[in-house]
Structures are given as structure tokens and as C-alpha cells.
């Protein structure tokens, strides 16, 4: 069973927020009552505590603008298969992940492109093959 934790409303007029810091990463086990992350609306900060036991299976990127009541992390009662999770996320810093399509990840690895420098054009900031292709074209044009 999957449990969703959503971006809370930290103020009356808050429409969106960001995860300022992750305390957990994909695949880690979270117990009910354990702090998962720190969120902010730019002026206020709030630690998000899980009401569920489970394994982190998806999470938004740190500093990604997320609307109030949108899912920021999902927990599953079954362990995450890391080979599957690694296909879609790249850890660009401790507890900071970038969503990337499998084909874009392979292309970036082949051309030794640092994906942490890319801004994804896909849904939710996902890096797509077109994003990587654009960088490859620039590299090839420069040589």
C-alpha cells in the first residue's frame, strides 16, 4: 500500500512551497513519527513528520516549487527495488535527487554530462532525452 505525504499550507495565503532539506532518501525506511523533511514557503519552515511506516519510493526535488496539497513524498509498505528507483532518479547531492528518464540517463552517462547542471523540461522538472540532446549538440558544435 502506498501512502502520500503532501505539501502543507504554512500560512493562510500560501499557494506553494519547497522542500528545503531531505532527511531521508529513496529506499530508506521511515517509521511513523519520524521526521522526513523540512519544507518552507520562503518565510516559515516546518518539519514534516510521517504518520505512516514505509519505504520512501518517490520524492520531489529539493527547492522544486510544489503547490500546496501536492504530493511531496510517497511511502510504500514494501521495500523499493533500487534498480528501478535508480532508473528515474540521480542523486546530485546528499538527499537531493533529480528526476530523469532512463534514456536521458544513459545518454548523459555516455557523454559524461553532469545532470545536476541541467534544468529538466519534462513534467515536474524531469530531464528528458531532448534536454540531454541539446547539451550534446552544443558539445559537438564546439568541437
TrEMBL record:
Q: What class of enzyme is it?
A: transferase
One GO molecular function term of this record is: dihydrolipoyllysine-residue acetyltransferase activity
TM helices/strands, residue ranges: none
Q: Which cofactor does it need?
A: (R)-lipoate
Q: Name the UniProt key words of this record, in alphabetical order.
A: Acyltransferase, Pyruvate, Transferase
Tell me the domain of life: Bacteria
Q: Which CDD domains match?
A: lipoyl_domain (cd06849)
What's its EC? 2.3.1.12
Q: According to its record, what are the GO cellular component terms?
A: cytoplasm
Q: Which InterPro entries match?
A: 2-oxoacid_DH_E2_comp, Biotin_lipoyl, E3-bd_dom_sf, PSBD, Single_hybrid_motif
Q: Which residues form the Lipoyl-binding domain?
A: 4-62
* Every Peripheral subunit-binding (PSBD) domain range: 100-133
Q: Which family does the record claim for this protein? A: Belongs to the 2-oxoacid dehydrogenase family.
What's the protein name? Biotin-dependent enzyme
Native source organism of the sequence: Kurthia zopfii
Question: Taxonomically, what lineage is the organism?
Answer: Bacteria, Bacillati, Bacillota, Bacilli, Bacillales
